[in-house]
């Protein structure tokens, strides 16, 4: 977004009570009904400032693929755990174990398919 006063890029912050790194789309998707989201835009070149308040009037949800949602949540959790590991050796061992498990799963699946 560009500043309406001078055309320079503006920063966008979402609040209240949200980390500075929260995107507007993440804040909207995490909002509850009747929750207010504040959006602040600032131009650091000319000092232009704007704050807008958005209120979530209603939320309509559609059913999604429950398995896909659960899988995505598990992948996020695994990624968070891996990011917390500081030892390269542990990461290498974990990767080797995952690859071994995948090979075992593939071999089991291939054997099951051949038996049918």
Automatic annotation (TrEMBL):
One of this protein's Pfam families, by short name? DUF8105
Tell me the InterPro entries matching this sequence: DUF8105
In residue numbers, the region (Disordered) covers 1-21
Query: What is the name of the protein in this document?
Result: YgiT-type zinc finger domain-containing protein
Source organism per entry reads Halobaculum roseum
């Amino acid at each position: 977004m560009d500043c309406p006063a001078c055309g320079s890029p503006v920063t966008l912050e979402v609040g209240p009570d949200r980390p500075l790194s929260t995107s507007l789309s993440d804040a909207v998707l995490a909002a509850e009904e009747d929750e207010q989201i504040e959006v602040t835009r600032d131009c650091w070149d000319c000092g232009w400032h704007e704050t807008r308040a958005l209120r979530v009037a209603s939320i309509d949800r559609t059913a999604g693929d429950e398995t896909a949602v659960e899988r995505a949540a598990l992948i996020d959790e695994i990624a968070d755990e891996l990011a917390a590991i500081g030892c390269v050796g542990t990461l290498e061992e974990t990767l080797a174990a995952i690859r071994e498990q995948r090979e075992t799963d593939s071999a089991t699946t291939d054997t099951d398919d051949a038996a049918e």
